[in-house]
Amino acid sequence: MANPSAEGRRIADVTGAQRIAFTRPAEGEFIHTFGYPKDRLNNPAAKYAGSRMIHCAGPARPGPKAPLLWGESCDMSHGASGGPHLARFDTRTGVGTVVGVTTTSEDLAGGQTNTLYATRFGDSARHLYTWAQTRQA
């Protein structure tokens, strides 16, 4: 077991954890996205203040200018980066499969406005994940 507590328990055993996948994205796959956006940074009139989690969901599509980026319709902005993109998300249990993390909005990917993009996990991420699973504290 990698990095257990002094009592021999893993964090995931105490807090729960999401699944992870390293599969190729499928156009139209339904994805749920979560983040804590701070709309337009330090703007008191902003829709989001960065203090609460926001959720978006919809079919995934590749970025026109950056096909390695896959996105879903979502109006989250600055501050949402690093939030998970989950496939097969169960709204009753809160469990899904992390397939990527928010990387950018339409600016870099060239897609429609109000789209949040992730670089989907692939072989490099799988190798890093496998390596980390074998590390000892």
Jot down its keywords.
globular, single chain, 3 helices, eight-stranded mixed sheet
Description of the molecule:
With 137 residues, this protein is α+β, with helices and mostly antiparallel strands. It has 3 helices and 8 strands, in the order H-E-E-E-E-E-E-E-H-E-H. The chain has helices at 11-15, 106-109, 123-134; strands at residues 19-20, 30-35, 54-59, 61-62, 69-73, 84-90, 95-105, 115-120. Strands 1, 2, 3, 4, 5, 6, 7 and 8 form an 8-stranded mixed sheet that branches. A hairpin with a 4-residue loop joins strand 6 (84-90) and strand 7 (95-105). The model has no long low-confidence stretch (mean pLDDT 85).
Summarize the structure.
With 137 residues, the chain is of the alpha+beta class.
Q: What is the number of helices?
A: 3
Rg of Cα set: 16 Å
> Hey, roughly how much beta strand do the residues contain?
25-35%
- Strand element count: 8
Poorly predicted ranges: none
C-alpha end-to-end distance = 10 Å
Biggest sheet layout: 8 strands, mixed
Q: Helix fraction?
A: 10-25%
SSE-based structural type: alpha+beta
Topology at a glance:
Elements lengths: L10 H5 L3 E2 L9 E6 L18 E6 L1 E2 L6 E5 L10 E7 L4 E11 H4 L5 E6 L2 H12 L3
Parallel strand pairs: 1-7
Antiparallel strand pairs: 2-3, 2-6, 4-5, 5-8, 6-7, 7-8
